[in-house]
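User: I'm new to structure prediction. If I give you an amino acid sequence, what do you actually give back? Let's try with this one:
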Amino acid sequence: MFNESNLFWFGCLLWLGSTALVLSFVGSKSKDKSDLSTSLQAAADADKIEQLQQQCQRLRTELQQQSNQLSADFRDAIFEQLQPLLTNFPTARQMVEARPDLLAKNLVSLFTPLENLLHSWGYEPIGKPWEQLPYNPQLHQPDVEDMVEGELVYIRFVGYRDGERIVYPAKVSRNLPGGVILNRGD
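Assistant: Good question. You get back a string of structure tokens that encode the predicted 3D arrangement of the chain. For your 186 residues, that looks like this:
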């Protein structure tokens, strides 16, 4: 994706290339021509240079407009997917502040747009909260340095992957947060 710096340098490169082409054309002309033909050629060359500079400026402007449009389209697409969450979150916050006893399960559905966005991007969660599994340093970020591969750990915070690429490793711990007791149906 082009940013302003790339657009600027692309425009400069285009202008320099055009100028070099014109100058090489001008330099290759024979020195033996009469003053009149030299003056006419110089005027024509100056006109060509001006036209190339105008074309370069027009291309810079077009690239900047395209970059701005792509950025706006990207923001609009993301906003559209997050709109339900962004619209409901301030109300949910106010509800929690007004009613601290409100059950969290009543708010969980507000996060569906985030799940849908991650799914549309192809991101997959790494683990489930409080899931116990063997520690894998490729997928997990431990909360202590002495964790060894294969040791049973708990997922404290899920991570995300995009195919084989780890976007964000799952945060793991040997213990669950204080006061958490899992009902395993034993």
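You can read the tokens as a compact description of the fold. Here is one thing that stands out. The first strand starts at residue 123 and ends at 126.
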